[in-house]
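TL;DR need structure tokens for one chain.
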Amino acid sequence: MTSSVNELVAAKALVLQYYLDFDSASSEAVADVLGKHTSVDCRFQFVHPFRDVVGADSAAREFWIPIRQSFQPLQRRQDIFFSGRNRVDGGQSTWVVSMGHLLGLFDRPILGMRPNRKSTFLRYAEFFQVDSGRIVDVTLFLDILNLMHQTGAEALPAATGATIVTPGPRTHDGLLFGDPSPEEGRTTLDLIMRMIDRLVAVDVKTTKADLVLDWTEDMIWWGPGGIGAPYTQDRYIEQHAGPFEAGLEWGYHCGHRMQCGEGMYGGFFGWPSLAVRSTGGYIGLTPASEDQTFMRVVDLYRREGGLLAENWNFIDHLHFLDQNGVDLVARQKMLTGL
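>> reply
TL;DR here they are.
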């Protein structure tokens, strides 16, 4: 194996060991586990309203302990796991990607949501930059609007697509724990970025003619809470692309922090990804505005032959709504009194 492949194997092993230690640790030990596997100056980026922080102690205090206090015991149910060299920086950095759900009993209020005392799923996507045997950068997306839909939060309108517990790949082969396959990963990422480059090159409405170039007919777009999961090309246009483009005016593509692929899987995230202007009514919540605001976005994909078959999308909706004058957490707290 080449040095690059060896680094990817070691990065995967590090993240898997971190998960093993973290998932079995008590809330009191979370900071110690984070500190064991991360650098002293590790940067943690969390979705709104949680703050970006530096260091294990801050990450435990600001994010993980509140999450664990509300949802316990917390069980990781991982659906996708892969590694790769970051195309954004010319392959200089090594990244590991994990996606799935955290399952817990929702027993204590959080973000204004009433606990339902039932099994509840926290949909997540997490990105780790690994360097010299330590995790040096972590970005974690939680689909909070999906959580709000599950718990019947009063502040949300209905989604345009189906809001469900999002499954993993149809092929059940998304956990790439073994040695990486760089060639297949490059092919997957080439296809993904060809599709993205075409999408952001011009400001036009998405059509069936666009989709057939890169997607299978029975594609499924596993979208975030507030939008949902359209199935097939036609329903993707009807239930996502159409409403999305009707509520927002395109600004520009901000780029990505990370792009990588392995085998038939690949994807990216941006912090932010898109600049858009609300024309009013996006996911039933945003007012019209003259200002451009920014979306933080994750897209992970499964390739099937020469086309894309599945896409798991996350949007930091609370962050985007906050920029548009909609504080969904404050609204939810007002409605529940929590």
